[in-house]
Write a structure and sequence with these properties.
The protein is α/β, with parallel strands linked by helices and 435 residues long. The chain is 42% helix and 12% strand. The chain folds into three domains: 34-237, NADH-ubiquinone oxidoreductase 51kDa subunit (Rossmann fold); 248-332, Ubiquitin-like (UB roll); 337-424, NADH-ubiquinone oxidoreductase 51kDa subunit, iron-sulphur binding domain (de novo design (two linked rop proteins)). It is built from 18 helices and eleven strands. The longest helix is centred in the last third of the chain and has 18 residues, at 357-374. Bound molecules: flavin mononucleotide and iron/sulfur cluster (SF4).
Amino acid sequence: MGYPHPIHPKETPVLSTHFGAAAARTYQGWVERGGYAALKQALGMAPGDIVGVIKESGLRGRGGAGFPTGLKWSFMPKDDGKPHYLVCNADESEPGTFKDREIMRWTPHALIEGCAIAAYAIGAERTYIYIRGEFTEPLAIMRAAVEEAYANGALGANVFGTGTRIDMTLHRGAGAYICGEETGLMNSLEGKRGNPRIKPPFPAQAGVFGLPTTVNNVETLAAVPHIVSRGAAWYKGLCLGNEKSTGTKLFSVCGHIAKPGNYEVTMGTPMKDLLVEMCGGMRPGRTLKAVIPGGSSVPIQTAEEAMDTVLDYEGIVAKGSMLGSGGMIVMDDSADMVYQIWRLAKFYAHESCAQCTQCREGTAWTTKVLERILRGEGKPADLDLLLDLSENMTGKTICVLSDSCAAPVVSGIQKFRSEFDAYIQKTRQPALAGS
Ligand SMILES: Cc1cc2nc3c(=O)[nH]c(=O)nc-3n(C[C@H](O)[C@H](O)[C@H](O)COP(=O)(O)O)c2cc1C
Ligand code: SF4
């Protein structure tokens, strides 16, 4: 549902059905809503069969990269005699994204159940849920739910009397964006500085504590019980034509929009329907200028591209951007694109872990050059300089934070060049005070 708004007829609530219903937070309330039936069902299945169902459903990771979930699970070694781990990525620090927080706030047992099924499927006896440091309310709700799940036999040494052990540890982060990157997250979990690791080895070979690990996003894992109980064919059927993108997706819509909130739609829904009908369109008297559709790390779309986009992995790529985490930042004609891009660059410069030269230097210099332009001190060559910097920041580093800084800069210059030119040619008042 478009929480805090009522469910719109064009939404397909699956994960968000119980958003806003405090009674669904308790173990009893969750069971009354059909909760934990999928875990009981899964524990009666062979782990490999669960992986098969998830593969067949077409579920792809909702944390940003869209990697097929069942395929990821199948990479975990079998019968290797080593401890395995499931890590749930609840860091959610991508600007513009606020859906995992709502899943944990309203349906904590959905996440616990999804984690327990995934853990059983990959042969893990322990799940770590890595929660963003600032999420005090979701953390308190998750703590209470995990305690209840243990007390009712949904977690522990003998889950629902089946002899299967599934333990769960909540780990609170300290609020670093880079700890959302899965290998940085694992280092942080181990008590080290949250620097991303070079891959390979991939987590399935050597993950947390050097042991086989699967990392999945909150929204990905919360979808798992629904797929187990309703079947892969049902989930696959939730798509509007493109079989590579199935199921529903929560879009967090924010910025210059009449009704910001989380909206759950079937993959393939037109962005126009989401922004105009479900979210109520622009603020009075304003027109749409740009959308960043997948969290701040993806290219910016023009209004024309956005209005012609279907909301699935391939549909957004076809219109110049990426689905990412589904955090949609909407900007109307009052937005200063240069200023907004500078704010993003500043964020990435602040959050860079500084291991890679291209990222450490590139994010800092990008910010400085944009600042110079916004002070009215830009030079005609600055746009080529920014593009050159971005080129050297893309595809060359340990993780993609560096690429993420470059994406809005390159797309911004390509699509909104006249706004940069206006500052450089001094036909626009400086937005920042002079040096
Ligand atoms: C800089 C950076 C930050 C990230 N932050 C998050 C995050 O906050 N939450 C998340 O689920 N994935 C985040 N990711 C993606 C994870 O590395 C990983 O791909 C994801 O958790 C895998 O889960 P999924 O397959 O279910 O999507 C981030 C990636 C990068 C490069
Ligand atoms: S790209 Fe940036 S954030 Fe990622 S590892 Fe390198 S320096 Fe750290």
